[in-house]
Design goal:
Length: about 375
């Protein structure tokens, strides 16, 4: 089957994560796949995939060398809407992969508003005003992606519920049948090796700490400072860019038990995550946390904020502890509770890993993608 995958991406894209994992998985199953970039990229291949510039693809391939199916990783970005309209006009079946962590539209308040009080900052007051007026304009720009698509893929049940609620509010019930759930796949580096059964008494956090607010760098510093005092036997490892932002905000009395590695390559990160008991994710914004999913597949449990995808990965508490809100005190309480579960032998690394490896492994997710595009061509999905 001839499939085109469209996304924003750069030469820094990882073969282990979306959007690359989707076309790579489909290509491994024998499909003819090309990746189309809406940004600038000056090579004709990436990780073994054929790459086309969007402008060239629209001018030639869409009309002459037509794909059988297009998968557009749109994230409900209005900027890609003209491309989706062109695909629809060419009568090519279209699958849209959205980003429904609360950002699609009214009446779902986005996570960045839930995570911070209205009065916390003047910018936040403006965000709230923008969110509420004029609501129809901001929502309809994103809902057009649903209207144009033959299928809409969400990454977690909470994201699908968000989208369903928005469609219900705007009286588009017939569009709900387009929604399907496909989580992101996890590299075999995390899903094939034996699980480390004796985990270190360690909490690991991995993130782009230069994106300080959305990744919760300030929350991370506050939680470590709070919990390290109460759990002196626990060590913390912080991986990722700009760890200085976190380290400068730690209590000096606990800094000796916190290790900052900076940014590491995928294999080095795996070695640390696979030996830790807990992965702490203090994010205010996430569409799907690969770090959390990778930790689960290595047998660690989670401590997370109440974000759609993180609630899904924590299994409602079966595979981790969920903070009540986006505060240092709530996340700290969840982490202390999770540490107690490990101390009382209530967490079993092998069972955690077995559950999520069966769901998130590359081969399984690739088969799901292959099945839905094949069904879309035969008309089985639409029926």
């Amino acid at each position: 089957m001839k499939i085109t995958v469209i996304d924003f991406y750069t030469a820094d894209s990882s073969p282990y994560k979306d959007p690359i994992s989707i076309p790579r998985g489909l290509a491994a199953l024998g499909h003819e796949v090309e990746l189309v970039t809406t940004g600038y990229y000056d090579h004709d291949s990436l990780f073994g995939l054929k790459v086309r510039q969007l402008s060239d693809w629209l001018a030639h391939d869409l009309k002459v060398n037509r794909p059988e199916v297009v998968i557009a990783i749109s994230r409900f970005n209005p900027g890609i809407s003209p491309v989706l309209r062109a695909i629809k006009a060419a009568r090519i079946p279209l699958v849209v992969k959205g980003d429904t962590d609360g950002t699609i539209g009214y009446p779902i308040p986005p996570n960045y508003l839930r995570a911070c009080p209205v009065s916390a900052h003047p910018l936040n007051i403006l965000r709230h005003i923008k969110w509420r007026a004029p609501v129809s304009y901001f929502v309809k720009q994103r809902l057009e992606h649903v209207l144009l698509a033959d299928l809409v893929v969400c990454e977690s049940p909470g994201a699908a519920v968000n989208l369903t609620r928005v469609l219900d509010f705007w009286e588009l019930p017939e569009q709900m049948k387009k929604i399907t759930l496909i989580p992101n796949s996890i590299s075999k580096i995390y899903t094939l090796p034996p699980v480390v059964s004796k985990k270190c008494h360690t909490v690991v956090s991995v993130g782009r700490w230069d994106d300080q607010w959305s990744k919760g760098a300030d929350l991370l510093a506050g939680v470590i400072s709070h919990v390290a005092v109460r759990k002196p036997e626990t060590e913390f490892i912080v991986i990722g860019k700009n760890p200085e932002y976190v380290s400068k905000r730690l209590l000096k009395s606990v800094s000796s038990r916190v290790w900052f590695t900076g940014q590491m390559d995928f294999e080095e990160t795996y070695a640390i995550v696979s030996s830790a008991q807990i992965c702490l994710v203090p994010s205010r914004l996430e569409s799907f946390s690969h770090v959390a999913a990778e930790a689960l597949c290595s047998g660690a449990s989670l401590v997370v904020t109440p974000i759609e995808a993180l609630l899904y990965l924590a299994g409602g508490g079966a595979y981790g502890s969920i903070a009540r809100d986006f505060s240092v005190s709530a996340i700290s309480a969840a982490l202390i509770y999770e540490l107690c579960l490990w101390d009382s032998l209530c967490r079993e690394p092998a069972s955690i890993a077995a559950h999520w490896r069966a769901i998130l492994n590359e081969d399984c997710i690739a088969l799901i993608w292959s099945r839905i595009v094949e069904q879309l061509l035969t008309g089985a999905v639409r029926e």
